[in-house]
Amino acid sequence: MNVLISGGFSRAYEQPVPEFERTCGIKVTTGSGASQGAGPQTIAGQLARGVPADVVILSREGLSELIAANRIIAGTDVDLARVPLGVAVRTRTPKPDVSTVEAIKQLLLKAKTVAVPESTSGIWLKTDLFPRLSIVERINIKATPRGTHATEMVAEGGADVAVMPVSEILHAAASNSRVACRQRSSSHRCFQPPS
């Protein structure tokens, strides 16, 4: 079975695969790519090149685009999870205040560089949230091809913060001792301010 998966689901996906292979006797080959965006390594780009996939796991937005492009059979899609956004900072950095929309706005305004993935969350941040907060023109946004690159920028000091799915931050933090996740328990409300 060939699976293409985006970064947001990787950690949860990796855990059950060995047990699935053992109990079902089916070998799983996994590829990865961004849910949305341009470029040959996005899931859409790989499917367009003929990369085989029996299953794709990605954001709803990316999946809807693939269905509309007839790359995925309509009606075969299933929502698996909702992932809140969080803020990644370097380990040993004081815990940033993400308790209110205003606190998040100030955190982003004070950052020299804000890293975001180029895919679904970064697209939404750059085209919806940051403009609604009236900060899109006032912050230095660095879009990276994958979420792992955004957390690497933070770990290496190239960005003060990364805003991205918590699942990707936790995955990065598990493998990189220089990144820490800071989120609010109800971060969904934090990142969806009233218009």
Structure write-up:
With 195 residues, the chain is α/β, with parallel strands linked by helices. The longest helix has 13 residues, at 120-132. The protein has two domains: 2-68, no CATH class; 85-190, Periplasmic binding protein-like II (D-Maltodextrin-Binding Protein, domain 2). It contains nine helices and eight strands. Strand 5 (114-117), helix 6 (120-132) and strand 6 form a beta-alpha-beta unit. Helix 7 crosses helix 8. Mean pLDDT is 85; it is low at 183-195.
Helix-strand layout with pairing:
Blueprint: E1 2-5, H1 10-14, H2 17-24, E2 29-32, H3 43-48, E3 55-57, H4 60-68, E4 85-90, H5 101-110, E5 114-117, H6 120-132, E6 141-144, H7 147-155, E7 161-165, H8 166-175, E8 179-182, H9 187-190
Parallel strand pairs: 1-2, 1-3, 5-6, 5-7
Antiparallel strand pairs: 4-7, 4-8
In the CATH classification, which architecture of the largest domain applies?
3-Layer(aba) Sandwich
Write down the CATH class of the largest domain.
Answer: Alpha Beta
Overall structural domain count: 2
Q: Strands of the biggest beta sheet: in what spatial order?
A: 6-5-7-4-8
Q: Total number of helical segments?
A: 9
Shape by Cα distribution: globular
Radius of gyration from the alpha-carbon trace, in angstroms? 17 Å
Task: Determine the structural class based on helices, strands and strand pairing.
Answer: alpha/beta
